[in-house]
Amino acid sequence: MTENDALKMIEMSLDKLKAYKMIPEDTVFSKSLPLLGPGSPLDSIGFVTFMTDIEERISTETDKEIYLVLNEISDFNVNQSHLLVEQLARYLIKVSEET
Question: How far apart are CA 31 and CA 99, in angstroms?
């Protein structure tokens, strides 16, 4: 999986949430968009829905059942919950390479 593949996967998932009106339609996708923490367009239910959708997408792409674990993201700090698109993209690349 390339960075562009990972970013596209995240963008498609966020677009799905926009279609279901779980996030504002005017949310602008970028590498610096917060997915968790201050400034995130996702509430707790939206975040869980988003992560579940990403798991399904990456599992389909790799043909293996994959579960994402926030603590495994190298830039993620549980004491300062803040996750950006670019951090998740790097993690998705890593996870896809490990399978």
Answer: 24
Residue with tokens 């509430």: 43
Domains of the chain: 3-98 (1.10.1200)
User: Hey, what are 6's tokens?
Assistant: 């990972």
List b or e across 47-59, with b for residues whose CB sees 16 or more CB atoms inside 10 angstroms. bebbbebbbebbe
- Phi first, then psi: give them for residue 30, nearest 5 degrees: -160, 165
Measured distance CA(96)–CA(99) in Å, rounded: 6
Q: Residue 31, Cβ neighbours under 10 Å: how many?
A: 13
Within the chain, where are the H helices? 3-19, 44-62, 85-98
Amino acid 9 reads: M
Convert the pLDDT of each residue in 27-40 to its tens digit.
Answer: 999 999 999 999 99
- The token duo for 22 is 């779980």
pTM of the model: 0.92
